[in-house]
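Fold these two proteins, one after the other.
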Amino acid sequence: MINLHPAAPGGPAGTWQEVIWQLINNKARETGVMMHLVTPELDKGAPVTYGTFSIRGKPFDKYWQEIKGFPFDEIKRQGENNSLFKLIRQHGLAREFPLIISTLKAFSQGKIKISPDKRVIDAKGRPINGYNLTDEINTIVNS
């Protein structure tokens, strides 16, 4: 079984809301979306596929500037109405369905597989730490 997660491999664990708050609190520069193997430990399964995107530069910098100097607790009190929070969610959500479709396509084309011992492998049977679909997803999102 695979799961959709609103962060890049190695990124924050938790719900999409928890992920976004961690990104803001840590002043992250990049995030993403991934599909990972389901394990008993929350969001710790091996990455299957992923796509990343910057949360710096246009249009993000304006909103990072707005929160600069404020304590995180004060920023978080705004809740999901915080402009930076909403923008990060918008960009992540725009990539979720393309990731799901591109993941299914990669499986059907044999570009990735799950080995009998539950490892993610490429078309040559080599273990990989997720199949990077960033370019494909960005093409879909930006078209």
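Now the second one:
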Amino acid sequence: MLGKNLPLSNFVHDPSFTNSYFLGIPQLGTWGDLHVDTLVLAWMCMGTVLLGAAIVTPSLTSDSAGGKGQAIAESIHGFIEDLCKGQMGHHYKTFFPLIASIFLFVLTANFIGVLLPGKAFEGQAWWPRVDGEPFELCSPTTDFNVTFGLALLALIIYVGSGFVVHKANYLKLYLNPIEWMDLIIRPATLALRLMMVITADELMRAAAIVMVPVILPTGVMAFEMFIGIIQAFVFALLTSIYIGLTVSHH
């Protein structure tokens, strides 16, 4: 995220846990640290998606056009369904819930950094702090832990789907060294693109607020929301393409 994250080691003081190592790398406090602010905001994003679904579901009807909630839900469903169908063919129904979940989570995570006035709160005396560091309100997708986790999930799904569809024959694909490179390049580009673009948006808004705090930030926020939609679409699209290439490979 943009500032200094709140590491989990600030909250957990058990040395047997905070001093743990994995492959020689300390898990809490330095590289690979778990950030509490990121976790909380990611949970908020997931809760927002689930709450929205819970609110819309009772009003869904097959007998009439329904209300605004149904219209929005059907638009999102149709958009993601067309995306999946275009990239995966008849396999799309299996992966539709995954792609829809990724799109909605990334979209909500991108928006939450725009809509929550975090920087206005973090300087206040009443704002929660741990070891002098304020709880940071930014998009969870500015934290590499989140974007890498999403990219790793996409990697596991599209490689696993290859073995499910093609069985042991799928191993033949990896006789080509280029395919081994793809196992690194694809998730790396997914994770880094999302993180860097959203981080740049957050920095641009922060700079706009400092330079012209009255009018300019409104336009910047609108631009950020547009970029947030595009980045959620790109992440879902690329994941769909990778899965589609895997399940259709001969």
